[in-house]
Amino acid sequence: MPVTTVPLTSVPLKPVPGPRGLPLLGNLPAFGRDPLGFLVRLRDEYGDAVTWSLGPRRSLFLFHPAHIAEFLAARERTFELLEIGWAFKQLTGQSLILSKGSDWRRKRSLVQPTVRPRQVRGYAAAMVECAQAAAGQWQDGDRIDVRHQMALLTQRIVLRTLFGNDLGDRTRALSEAMAVAEHGIGAELRNMTLFLPGWIRTPGRRRLLRAVATIDAEVHRLIRARQRHGGTEDRDDLLSRLLAARDEEGRPLTTQEVRDEAATLWAAGHETTSTALTWTWYLLSRSPEARERLTAELDEVLGGRPPTIDDYDRLPWTRQIIKEALRLYPPAWLIPAVARDGATLADTRIPPGTVVWCSQWTTHRDPRWFPEPTRFRPERWDPEAPDPVPDHAWYPFGGGQRTCLGARFAQVEAALLLATLAQHCHLDVTPAAPAPRVGLLLQPPTPLHATVRRH
Ligand code: HEM
Where is the chain membrane-spanning (predicted)? Predict the structure, then answer.
């Protein structure tokens, strides 16, 4: 399915001041109360580029795809990453996701090849196998928590693709440690303790550190085992590929760097995809026509056999469903960066220190680019659809050089899991309109109950 985009034309940038907000705190309380609603109001009441204050910092919010594309592309040159706080760093260390400049370029060039399309081909069979095992456990009429089930499934897959079958009975303890660490990071964000100095140890922070220590010990043990047995050439998991990677001067990643990149791929690579799949089931359970077309496509292309990576291109409707779910409920919903000296957008100077933001939530639901923006309509992605979508009006994976490293992995995984599971059953999600829970990701509420309807 070709991505339906129209080229960008130059759009002038004319920032207008947004709501005044409170002294010192600025718009922080209004944003904190209802972040999604606040951003939609900014867009609808003020326009495409709005200045506002987040605490003492001046911020600029961008809503137009032309400005968003330019901003995302300019980040490596004229913007800094916004500090994401102490907690996230405990888990990812100094991996590529928090690195800058030449350090980031080196790490990205070493890690990127582990998730190229050719490598993702190799992970596809494990994805389908894990999905078949999950579907095999659900009986007709069972009530399941979709969010929990999707999280278990993508967790299993990321651990298989990272470490092969080496984890054995430690899989559970390790998955639990990751869940505790991720919960701790989300809690810091919700409680606004994000930027407290690292030496302040709340009970939540102590739990987080214990969980990270469990993850560290296990990942280091796996790395040592690979190093002891020499050679990783015969293995095709991500950990072996990270250990075998060499930069332009032939240097490998250090042991600590391998640990940090493995933890980052793990953390970045499972909850994002499970969230996307959970929203997909929710949307499908509200759309019988989309579901029927899905069943028809799976019957026609697969005829009852499990999908393989070669089927990915042959399942356009399955991919359109995922794409539309990522539009309506983008798991990653906010991208900030801080302007450096010399930053410009659309030939307009951006004062240094300004935090520039864009949000997939607001752009993906903008009626200018998506007629009937709140409706789930996978057919809007038909190649012959009448309304072409501008570049960067859909950007669940970000953009520019720092675009999501695992975008291909995630899209293949989501499509193959949906195709495998939907061959066996559909999930009828009961709550009518669950409001997203806003954290690092836009999550459905938990539990999100569904009844299994086996075919
Ligand atoms: C539906 C699933 C996913 C979504 C929605 C998603 C979204 C994103 C977004 C929005 C970014 C920031 C991009 C930017 O700043 O322009 C990102 C970065 C990243 N993602 Fe993903 N992601 C997903 C799955 C994955 C997977 C499966 C992996 C790994 C296997 C992964 C690894 C990464 C890494 C390492 C980065 C940092 C890249 C860098 O800073 O150079 N993601 N992702």
Answer: none
Q: How far is the CA of 267 from the centre of ligand 1 (A)?
A: 10
Tell me, using a 6 A CB cutoff, whether residue 264 lines ligand 1. yes
Instruction: Report the residue among 162, 257, 397 best suited for mutation to probe ligand 1: largest number of ligand atoms under 8 A from its CB.
Output: 397
Residue 58 in tokens: 């001046």
Nearest ligand 1 atom to the CA of 99 is: 40
Contact indicator for 53, 355 with CB cutoff of 8 Å:
no
pLDDT in tens, 184-199: 888 887 666 776 788 8
> 102: part of which helix (H) or strand (E)?
helix 101-111
Question: Which of 328, 331, 321 has its CA nearest to residue 418?
Answer: 321
pLDDT tens figures, 362-384: 999 999 999 999 999 999 999 88
Q: What is the mean pLDDT of the chain?
A: 91
- The single-letter code of the amino acid at 454 is R
- Domains by residue range for the chain, with CATH: 1-85+333-395 (1.10.630.10), 94-314+402-455 (1.10.630.10)
With a 6 A CB cut-off, is 331 part of the ligand 1 pocket?
A: yes
Angle at 288 between CA 287 and CA 291, to 5 degrees: 90
Ligand 1: atom nearest CA of 400 is 16
